[in-house]
Design brief:
By secondary structure, the protein is of the alpha+beta class. It contains nine helices and eight strands. The chain has a five-stranded mixed sheet with strand order 1-2-3-4-5. Helix 3 (32-42) crosses helix 6 (119-127).
């Protein structure tokens, strides 16, 4: 059993990398938690992403209400500090103990870091194409073109004979089939690679933040 699978048995979560989880993010609610969730979904270094409402600790459920992302070196909980109610010392202490017990690192983020440009806008532009229908033969040609090495958007367009390839690549990034440099995509000189090839050691996100749409992720009650 994988570390992520084992951990999912220990507390209730919403898997935001599944097709249904990505659908929950939708669009329209421009909270920082949603923006962050979209960014982390597109990040090639994130292997799992969940919204964790609570964690068990000493027979109690400790309120968390955060996005928790898994990286190669462990789990990170994103605390969107300007979109939550203030915690008193006792509540903060119990939260830190619960996170430590479950081997989760706490990372504070705010509007400034989540909305940093150009990454934030690039991620939203990619996300706009998540519902695009792609011909399976074209999808197969794109994957074959990227078998040996990553290509620029322009090179990939020429390789598969598709002039308007940016929306298609965006959709495949949303589906976690491809990955790209999120700081420069959709520029036509930006590189694109197959996600399975793991050609990038570090994403342009490098662990950020945000709040969600229809899910109301982390919203104060």
């Amino acid at each position: 059993m994988s570390q992520a699978a084992a951990r999912s048995r220990r507390y209730p979560t919403i898997d935001l990398l599944s097709a249904s989880g990505r659908a929950l993010l939708g669009c329209g609610n421009e909270s920082n938690c949603r923006r962050l969730a979209v960014q982390l979904t597109l990040d090639s270094t994130v292997s799992s992403l969940s919204f964790v409402p609570t964690l068990p600790l000493a027979g109690e459920q400790i309120e968390v209400g955060m996005l928790v992302a898994e990286y190669d070196d462990g789990f990170v909980a994103y605390d969107v500090v300007d979109e939550r109610v203030d915690r008193d010392i006792d509540t903060e202490g119990m939260l830190l103990i619960a996170l430590d017990k479950h081997d989760i690192t706490l990372r504070a983020v705010d509007t400034f870091s989540i909305c940093a440009q150009p990454l934030a806008q690039n991620c939203e532009r990619i996300w706009e194409h998540r519902g695009l229908e792609i011909d399976r033969h074209l999808g197969a040609r794109i994957e074959r073109a990227l078998e040996r090495d990553r290509l620029s958007v322009r090179e990939l367009s020429h390789a598969v004979g598709e002039r308007n390839i940016t929306p298609i690549v965006s959709n495949l990034i949303c589906k976690r089939v491809l990955c790209a440099d999120l700081a420069t995509f959709p520029d036509r000189d930006a590189w694109v690679a197959r996600r399975s090839d793991r050609l990038v050691e570090n994403s342009s996100l490098n662990c950020k933040t945000a709040k969600s749409t229809r899910l109301k992720l982390g919203a104060p009650k």
